[in-house]
Please model this.
Amino acid sequence: MQFCDECGSMMKSMGSKMVCANDDCQHTTGKDEEKAAEFVSTEEQGDSEVIETSEDANFEGKPTANDVICDKCGHDTAWYTIKQTGAADEPPTRFFKCQDCGYRWREYS
Model:
């Protein structure tokens, strides 16, 4: 990631130039090939990181929670999975599926 020398905003690549993302600044500079070699590209998100939200997602076999109540049918047991949906310093989100009626909901810690 490269930052603007003028205002400190993030720069974005536009062909052979780097352009400041701040609309008020619009500072441009040539790409520094030495710095570009130091940049790390992230990989695509893998299937294991995808949050199961589709109707046919398989929650069965996941851990169960006995301390929750389904808002739809009142059943007290649900499968759950935990995913980090926010920043790393925020608590994870638990996604539930009622074992009786299949209703889905989430809980933010």
Observations:
- The longest strand covers residues 78-83.
- The chain is about 5% helix and 30% strand.
- The helical segments are 33-38.
